[in-house]
Amino acid sequence: MKTHNIFADTIFETNVLLMDSEYNFIKNTKYIPYLSKGGNESDDKQILNHIELKSLKIKIINQLTIYVYNILKVDPKIKFYMTGSWVNKYTSKDGAGVHCHPYSYMSGVYYVDVPNNSGDIHFYKRSSYLAGGSPLMYSEANSFNSNKYHIKPKKGDLLFFSSDMLHSVNPNLSDKERYSIAFNFFIKGDLGQEPYGVSI
Ligand SMILES: [Fe+2]
């Protein structure tokens, strides 16, 4: 007997170190309030292009390379490039509602400073006909019956996930500020094969 767990949604998780100079640069950048939700975001939406964060960006790209080519087995002819990166600064009660990242193929988040109880990230199953549409009771949660999954991040954690994956962030219930950097990647290269493939 075996169970086929097909069409997996994957979230890549690792941890990379942040230098003190990078930490200070992130904390001291200019922040503006989110228009549609709580919290603040960096005014700069290409924050990882600053020379001060060059080392961090290289580490993120290196980990993305491992994920997409070694694990997802994307054809090496397809290249990923970062289209945007910004800092999220959440103070008391700030969080993020359920959303995904449009105009993007792969997204990620790097946790700069994560005080205790400052908000886990939740991911949601795209299709939940059995688990959500016809709700059943389960004796325990597992990857076969759950329609929601959460990760409790710590400082230095780095996540990658498909940009169309719905996610949210719980409110910051600590009395300290929480900083994370979000970023998006798009793809270029030879996609598909003749006669319907495209080169972008
Ligand atoms: Fe997000």
Your description of this structure?
- The protein has one domain (11-128, 142-189): Jelly Rolls, CATH 2.60.120.620.
- Helix content is 16%, strand content 34%.
- The protein is built from 3 helices and 13 strands; from the N terminus they run E-H-E-E-H-E-E-E-E-H-E-E-E-E-E-E.
- The protein has helices at 20-27, 54-71, 129-133, and strands at residues 11-15, 31-33, 40-42, 79-90, 96-99, 106-113, 121-124, 148-151, 157-162, 167-169, 178-188, 190-191, 198-199.
- It has a 7-stranded antiparallel β-sheet. Strands 5-10-7-8 form a 4-stranded antiparallel β-sheet, with no helix packed on it. It has a two-stranded antiparallel ribbon with strand order 12-13.
- The longest helix has 18 residues, at 54-71.
- The model has no long low-confidence stretch (mean pLDDT 92).
- The structure holds fe (ii) ion (FE2).
- Fe (ii) ion binds at residues 99, 101, 167, 182.
Please tag this protein with its features:
single chain, 200 residues, Jelly Rolls, 7-stranded antiparallel sheet, 4-stranded antiparallel sheet, 3 helices, binds fe (ii) ion
Radius of gyration from the CA trace?
A: 18 Å
Strand/helix succession: EHEEHEEEEHEEEEEE
Structural class: alpha+beta
| Helix percentage | 10-25%
* Tally of structural domains: 1
Largest sheet: 7 strands, antiparallel
Approximate shape: globular
Instruction: List unreliable stretches of 5+ residues.
Output: none
CATH architect. name:
Sandwich
What is the straight-line distance between the termini?
Answer: 45 Å
| Fraction of residues in β-strands | 25-35%
Enumerate how many helices there are, as a single number: 3
Looking at CATH, the homologous superfamily is: q2cbj1_9rhob like domain
With strands numbered from the N-terminus, the spatial order across the biggest sheet is 1-9-6-11-4-3-2
- CATH fold naming: Jelly Rolls
Find the count of extended strands (DSSP E, 2+ residues): 13
Mean pLDDT value: 92
User: Cofactors and ligands present?
Assistant: fe (ii) ion
- State the name of the first-level CATH class: Mainly Beta
